[in-house]
């Protein structure tokens, strides 16, 4: 009776008291309606089924009579009584989840004013901010418990309740009337229209009723008039005791405009930025201009982070599956329930000594060694990085076989600044992953560097000034590279001195293919000045070519130098032969070989291993490319590859392992590798390059139980169904328990038993990173600094950073001791040698040595590599015994071309290729509307299938026609639109990776659902050596589709 | 008098499209289109040219040219709705605009678009809010290769003026006569030709082509199995002498002017030696 009491105190008038009573009733009605539209708990069901209808009835009777309202109530009663009488909590929770949180049945009715009214379909629209500002005037915000947006219908209704409850002669009444008209009345009809398209029973009826109720109130203008007094009095204290979805707070703690420093994180390309937050919403991400030598350049994908965190189908609350796996039926649950269930299951496996039956499949999150920390202390060896074998496996192993295990992803950095010739084959810097080298690259183009790219498709490299495209038949790259090597050898254009001094080209190879070694295990070379074999580092004039009679204590053998073996190998790939295999004209091969030979060593051949797992022969292709680089002598030479600049950066960090709770770093640089080890059928490759497991073996273990069964999966950040989807779907049926954790839904999320929503980038702390940037105007200098990666805005719903919940999970399972620290503490420890802590970084955003330290990129200092020979390996000895036993070409110590398994034969068969582009990489971007609008993506038509113009003419297919494609091997079919282009090899078709999603949890209108999931059409081919998944090795049949697209 | 302009250096542009993404994201421009014109202030003009295997695809970022002689300003019926500042930047005053779209129709570059949700037009204003703080437009800042340059084109000592002069940068479509403040360097010209026997019309393979110019580096090519040669980066707007040599034939000599993004000079007929 608050309102009435207030009114009595302020005015004793009869009419005012009547008004007050009316408002009192309205306040209560709004409260009840609000309660209907929040996520129901058991108590809500109890109340709804027992009291709701009768209470609404009583209250309505106290209002001015309205036949319309009586009808509405009658209809409401008719609709919801049957449901409420059976009142099953799960039924209502499932309906709610599948209506308001995601599209449970093909339509989602986002219960937010901004989503219903604004054309820009993302969360936190202008209406959200407007509503938030209204709440703020009264010192209110959405409560922690509600954890949802201010313009949620339940919140807006509760706000109406609050305003009415606190009504008096001040502006509150005015505000209530105004809020009703400006907000609720405007959009509830739209919500109802949306619900009408669904088969919802309960919520459709409730919203219908509200839609009929609200206009009635504005008809009672009397109640809301306050004699034109709109004065908002700040001195009033308001009764907030009845609030549940809103809560009072100190408004001064949230300034209207904030700037926060952080770093956009994108694999291998970090950019320091400042983020402008206005009224709690990210409005701007722009480069910082206060960092020495840093010019503010950005990564296109990372910038689109803004769109990411406001995606309407972002995972918001923990979910529990209620239907069949894959059916996509979920209900929302609490974190307590979710983690409780996960902990119970995982603890059981652990306590029973079956921890290894649990597999963690993950991507590369920032701080991924924290993840390793979890699996290690949980006790399972199954820390599986899902993309290793579909991404970098082949290139990475090839690089390690050639240049050793400490060379990282690309055997050094490309010195574009000094390069005279750049070749991209198999990977395009300008397309995917790394564009931060682009400045040096573009500058060199301007100064006449020759740039040429070899690809079945005219990729985005074509945008570079003067770029030349050389088309090539898919899967034949190795023959082309060997053709180049053939010409270099034939015309003596290779760097003999480099080969002798820095590679194992001179080592002697026995007739059985094994290297000749002395009793101490040294490799031997032929010393021409002495006329005998001697250890590699003692030869004064080693022979590069030739066959020599070597007398040792035990035998006399004709040994060839490794280079001699290469000469013989390369002789099999004359330019004409290479042309026949690859389609690249022999003239072109000769020309390129001569140009590279003339430009050496200033030749950049991009060799980063990302996305190298393209074909079942990719390992040898990458080896061929690496051997070519050896012949040109590019390593540690200007214009070729350079290594870490020598000298201090002025920065020093403590290692994670030295923290008081040692954090094991997942180390891609193991101790000296036992190169004679073989891949076996266990979950792990024996090549210690991969201390983590191989995802295909998880599939096998699930299916066969060998080497041990996998019964539970915890998937983080990766879409397991991105490839081998049919196999994984059937594998899921054999797994008892699946947890999926991510920021947005993937296709595999539909199959999870429990879904955990993660805080996205900008919504969590990720520590810091070291950035090395070029010094502008100085070709060979680098500058290093530390840049903070910190939270900018709060998550909007119940999302949590994964470290946060992993820590809680560890505690629940019983190894929380290993997580007895905060992240800030952990980062403080790492930063300590610099005399700063993490709060310093939070505040300043960046740290660098004072006075400034820059380092010279130097060449010619590298004299040994971490290989068995201590040199760059032309001849790889890593798999000789396998090679001898099995004769598998993958193990051949020298590069060779061996054909891929799939070939198109009929006129309508094509190689199906896929790839990425600068603004579309990984699943993270497949649904970013900022990146996928027509004028950006559409012009290139990446979600259409690229088809050669002449082939299209032969098949009678026009641009934008629909076709059906089919894989004979996987049996899958799909429809897709064609893009006719001159820019693709006639035997190939191409589609971007990342389309064709089917997830129920994804918004029905999302871009990611367009196009194909190309990986559905890729059969099982692996590179035996690396487990590389050959994601481009597929052939499809293409048919004109006569069914018209509606 | 300061006059702001842009230099778009196509020698450095690699087509990554961060300029377009940062503009849209940082100005909170919604997703949408009106009568086929999507909501963007800066966009790519992409063209595929040639036929397999001699194919290229160029990309040019396009945006408002901030014309001194602006048709949009002339067409606008509401004083102040389209404000041409002293520094040359033309900005929309959305509170005055009534959405008649005359400016949109008048602009030959297609730089303006209509926001149906707000009922007003919108266009690039070179991020005036950044300029007010002494900073530069978002696109210029974000470009990783430095292909976008911003500055005072009236000041002959400014970086941008020097670069425009040095690179002989030109506005797009000067025939529109709008006096733009945005300058572009040229795309290279891809040059293609076919060498044939003058009498039999058979193609001549492995003929040697030499292109020389006093203004550009020499280019050496060979014809392929179809008698075709293709130069990937001949300098635009440049005169070259072309010399074709093939065994058994008289040397072919000519002068050509190379212009445009893609040029096929057709058949070069060689006469056999007697």
In short:
The complex is a heterodimer of chains A (about 1050) and B (about 270). Chain A has about 1050 residues and is an alpha/beta fold.
Task: Explain what the structure shows.
The complex is a heterodimer of chains A (1046) and B (274). Chain A is of the alpha/beta class and 1046 residues long. In chain A, 34% of the residues lie in helices and 15% in strands. Chain A contains 31 helices and 33 strands. A seven-stranded mixed beta sheet of chain A has the order 7-6-23-22-21-8-9. Chain A has a six-stranded mixed barrel with strand order 28-32-29-31-30-33. Chain A has a four-stranded parallel beta sheet with strand order 13-12-11-19, covered by helices on one side. In chain A, α9 runs antiparallel to α10 (202-219). The radius of gyration of chain A is 33 Å and the shape is elongated. By secondary structure, chain B is mainly beta. Chain B has two domains: 4-184, 2-Layer Sandwich (Alpha-Beta Plaits), CATH 3.30.70; 189-270, Immunoglobulin-like, CATH 2.60.40. In chain B, 14% of the residues lie in helices and 37% in strands. Chain B is built from six helices and 18 strands. Chain B has helices spanning 18-26, 71-75, 102-106, 128-132, 138-142, 159-167; strands at residues 4-8, 33-34, 37-38, 42-51, 54-63, 82-84, 90-92, 113-115, 120-122, 148-152, 182-184, 189-197, 208-213, 216-222, 228-234, 238-245, 252-258, 262-270. In chain B, the strands form seven sheets. Chain B has a four-stranded antiparallel beta sheet, with no helix packed on it. The termini of chain B are far apart. The mean pLDDT of chain B is 94. The interface between A and B is large, with 66 and 56 residues.
